[in-house]
Specification:
Layout: H1 3-24, H2 30-49, H3 60-73, E1 83-87, E2 90-96, H4 103-112, H5 119-132, E3 136-143, E4 148-155, E5 164-167, E6 170-173, E7 176-178, H6 183-196, H7 201-223, H8 227-240, E8 245-251, E9 258-263, H9 266-274, H10 286-300, E10 304-310, E11 319-325
Antiparallel strand pairs: 1-2, 2-4, 3-4, 5-6, 6-7, 8-9, 9-11, 10-11
Helix pairs in contact: 1-2, 1-4, 2-5, 3-5, 6-9, 7-8, 7-10, 8-10
């Protein structure tokens, strides 16, 4: 390979690696924006060369093949290096990593544990969206023995709450105005409730958590048919929101029993930093308990109650919640989810 071309290739890969490392540190939308960048490059290519794209079919796999043929004719790549198959409305792409110009980005992201979206596959996503008007996403798996990339391109399933933007002076999540609430402000609210109406603190936190999680849980249930996938999407959102890393330890779909753990709970950290909310030490993650109850209730389609059995505010490295079905009486917190 010409030395100057090799230098440009390395710089391009360094650019993507730096971008991936940067977005990995963004608390909101990092994966979304990295995917948008890889797809956006494909959009630019289509803006310039799109008139040469010869579409003979609206099958996703045929659109991808047409796009690769166009890039081949323009000297960007060799279309013969890509093996494409269709699986329903998904497109499966196979490529030997050693033949890809982005292999250093791929290997570096894998080694450093960074977000990774393949720029080549992102370009195919752009072509599909341009032709079909449908947003696509992708996953990539590497076979370490053969050093082969196995990519899947599929209609995007993304919770709208993942998308965080700033418009002028406004911060928005899924198009709705939002604010970032510092821990000190949150603690001050709790202290005020404790001083003026201590008997309602636990109920207010639980009910607030329950009500605030209903929309997210309903969106997750709509996007994911598998309850476990829906719950994982909700838990990822809770992590993005800074509430802690939530993990599904066990789930019985028939009975509705579940065990959930939260590492680095925001509520436990608040108590540890600003002092106990109650006269005696006890579990304190009632806001999160309400969120988990709502999420499980909506996704499992039955009233579920979560109880916190272990709490970081007392001891240990995680908070643990046990969930079980509950027959809610009319008027109790949470019953509005099933009206």
């Amino acid at each position: 390979m010409d030395e100057s071309i090799e230098i440009y290739r390395k710089v391009l890969n360094y650019l993507y690696l730096t971008l991936s490392k940067t977005v990995s540190a963004i608390p909101f939308s990092g994966k979304y924006w990295l995917e948008e960048v890889t797809r956006g490059v494909g959009e630019r290519v289509l803006d310039e060369y799109g008139k040469k794209l010869e579409i003979t079919s609206e099958r996703p796999v045929d659109i991808c093949r047409a796009y690769l043929r166009m890039l081949d004719k323009e000297g960007f790549l060799r279309a013969s290096a890509y093996q494409l198959e269709e699986e329903g409305d998904n497109v499966l792409v196979t490529l030997n990593r050693g033949r890809c110009v982005y292999q250093d980005f791929c290997r570096g992201a894998e080694k450093e544990g960074l977000f990774f979206y393949c720029p080549r596959v992102g370009a195919l996503q752009a072509a599909l969206q341009r032709v079909l008007g449908v947003e696509y996403s992708s996953t990539v798996e590497i076979d370490p023995e053969t050093d082969t990339c196995h990519c899947r391109i599929f209609p995007a399933k993304r919770l709208k709450t993942e998308i965080v933007t700033r418009e002028g002076d406004l911060l928005k999540i899924a198009g709705e105005r939002a604010i970032l609430l510092p821990k000190e402000t949150y603690s001050s609210i709790l202290v005020a409730i404790r001083e003026h109406a201590p008997h309602i603190l636990k109920t207010v936190l639980y009910d607030s958590g329950y009500r605030s999680a209903l929309t997210l849980a309903r969106q997750a249930k709509e996007y994911y048919s598998d309850p476990r996938e829906a719950l994982e999407a909700v838990f990822e959102e809770l992590r993005n929101d800074g509430l802690g890393r939530v993990e599904l330890v066990a789930l019985d779909l028939e009975t509705g029993h579940a065990v959930v753990r939260c590492y680095n709970s925001f509520e436990a950290a608040t108590v540890q930093r600003y002092g106990q909310l109650y006269r005696t030490p006890r579990v304190v993650c009632d806001l999160l308990r309400g969120m988990l109850s709502a999420s499980l209730s909506i996704i499992l389609e039955k009233p579920i109650l979560c109880e916190e059995m272990k709490c970081e505010a007392l001891e240990g490295e995680f908070c643990e919640f046990h969930a079980f079905p509950e027959e809610l009486e009319e008027g109790e917190a949470g019953s509005e989810a099933f009206e």
